[in-house]
Amino acid sequence: MGVKLVKPINFRSVKSITAIQFQNTMQVLEVRSDFAVAVSGGPDSLALLFLSKQYAEDNNLNFIAIGIDHSLRTNSKDEIQWVKKFLKKKKIKFYSIKWEGKKPQSNIMALAREKRYQLLTNHCKKLKIPYLLTAHHLDDEIENFLMRLIRGSGLKGLSSLKPRLKHKKTGVYIVRPLLEHPKKSLIKYLATIKQAYIEDPTNKDNRFDRTRIRILSSKLITEGLNKSRFLNVISNLKKAENAIISSIDFYLREIIINENKNSIKINLRKFIEMPDEIQFRILVKIASLVGMKKQSLRAQSVLNLINKINKADFKQATFNKCLFKRSQGFVNVIPEKGRAFELLTKKS
Is residue 10 a contact partner of residue 186, using CB atoms and an 8 Å limit? Predict the structure, then answer.
């Protein structure tokens, strides 16, 4: 087999994640029934695996491991075979899923991530397992933050890695219990249990955006913007994002009138008085529900619609297969093809 194992470093200046910390996080994230763990053989996922094993034993829960043979690299098959044999020795139930079909030639990382979530959550749904744990950690959070910052993302994008979210297509909860812990603390944990791991060669491949961002983050940390400060910044952004999300329902009740299943009315005066970010979020929600389109909406297109509605001479506009039409102090929103949609204020 062409798998090269790496011996974990016992970093002296780094504190290892502990089973008690993991236990507390899992309780906060309300993982109190059977769950699955995504495993690749890397240090992050192996640390998550062994922490999860102890958590399951301590709380009398069942758990399984799932791995994806993505075939994007020549040795991916060998890696998944190593994981399979390794977990068999550890008496951990493991499911290997092969990514069949044509592979992407561009935007590989993003498309592969989306495909992995699809395959993993589909398998969880099939086995009636409500939770899927992934090994995203603080370094991933920082890299994601910097990537979004460079691309000019707003508050929602900058705070996008959630510790728990529901996968839209399968309903399986994706849980990330390691977000507050740096990668080195996970490697040190593996050192304490004397567990070697597989190193992903793409982590050093400068062709990928994330690799270059990783180099940038290390330089910023050298300049004094350490990981604890990053964590504080990201935590504050998430609090602000949660506050906005909580306020959306209030604003919706203030400005929306549901007349029937095929039309709603927006109180134009109240809409114009709302903060810009709330206007943006509400129009995205309306357009997604009324238009029944699942793909992401372009931010600039939403901003263009807001500018039109806020003008005194606004009459009508189409967006995302919806018709926005002004009438007697309201903006009526209807599907272009008369399709029905759920009540806007109904929570998913």
Answer: no
| C-alpha distance across the termini of the chain, in Å | 47
Based on the fold, state whether residues 218 and 331 are members of the same structural domain: no
pLDDT value of residue 337: 64
Q: Are 175 and 298 found together in one domain?
A: no
Q: Determine whether 312 is exposed, middle or buried from the number of CB atoms within 10 Å of its CB (0-12, 13-18, 19+).
A: exposed
Q: Is 173 helix (H, G, I), strand (E, B) or coil?
A: strand
pTM reported for the whole predicted model: 0.78
Gap between the Cα atoms of 126 and 122, Å rounded: 6
**Containing structural domain, residue 103:** 5-225
Which of 190, 225, 260 corresponds to the end of one domain? Answer: 225
User: Strand, coil or helix: what is 197?
Assistant: strand
**Residues 186, 257: one domain?**
no
CA distance 190 to 187: 5
Q: Do residue 12 and residue 156 come from a single domain?
A: yes
Predicted pLDDT at 89:
95
CA dist 24 and 153 (Å) reads 32
The residue assigned the tokens 């899923």 is: 97
Instruction: Compute the distance between CA of residue 267 and CA of residue 263 in angstroms, rounded to an integer.
Output: 13
Answer whether 42's CB lies under 8 Å from 3's CB: no
Number of domains in the chain: 2
pLDDT computed for residue 342 by the predictor: 41
Hey, is 76 helix, strand or coil? helix
